[in-house]
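Q:
My hope is that you can spare some time for a protein that puzzles me. I hope you can help me see how the letters and the tokens relate. Thank you; the sequence and its tokens follow:
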Amino acid sequence: MTRTVYVNGEYLPENAATVSIFDRGFLFADAVYEVTSVLGGKLIDFDGHAVRLQRSLTELGMENPISKEDLLAVHRELVRANEIEEGLVYLQISRGADSDRDFVFPDPEKVKPTVVLFTQNKPGLAANVKPVKVISVDDIRWGRRDIKTVQLLFPSMGKMMAKAAGADDAWLVEDGYVTEGTSNNAYIVKGGKIITRALSNDILHGITRAAVLRFAREAQMEVEERNFTIAEAQEADEAFFTSASAFVMPVVEVDGVQVGTGKPGPVMTRLREIYLEESLKKAE
């Protein structure tokens, strides 16, 4: 089945969709993105993704070429056209295609942003709970990780390092402390307390992270936002990560050391249940 995708106001078959070779997203990674999950044919946390999208664009001095209402309509149309029951909608906005390659930003009056969306079908997304093994990798990314740009080469390399080591993913470490995973926010649980790094420019302000911590506090779980080390993670009762594409996923091994029982723990399991239940109530 050929997917229907969206490019600059047009719905097109994926094999007919094109973007200029001079697009700044292609040449400079001068672009931002969001990924919204779909469950039961509905969008999960769309509002949060729309707000973060605007923040990322603002931080890069880029205009938003599409309203929130129109963006929601495009998401819904792609979900409908591609018959997505469980899956993802990927959105990318670049600064646009200039007439040639130039480090200097183009005049926004002359060059308009490029908007691209496509879907990914992921049957079983809600039911998939996979125990994950991670390794630690030095975090050498740029300093503005709070902006969700498409500069994803090092996270991709981190995943390949993990694969080469027989693991599933990598947790990034800076100045002795875990920042986040290659494409997710990282957590440990000790004595029933959920511990995760506080928000700053050092990590992405995860939409799933915000929802999970809110639900945890509403469920009277104790949450502490602070830095933690790999050694602490290895000695924790549980570890897990959150992301829009995996929700809440257990981490059972860190740098070859088993975490807790080596199986999904009760705190992570309950948080995943709450997140899916509450998010589906508000799905669009």
Summary: The CA atoms of residues 48 and 207 lie 6 Å apart. The longest strand covers residues 31-39. The chain has a mean pLDDT of 97.
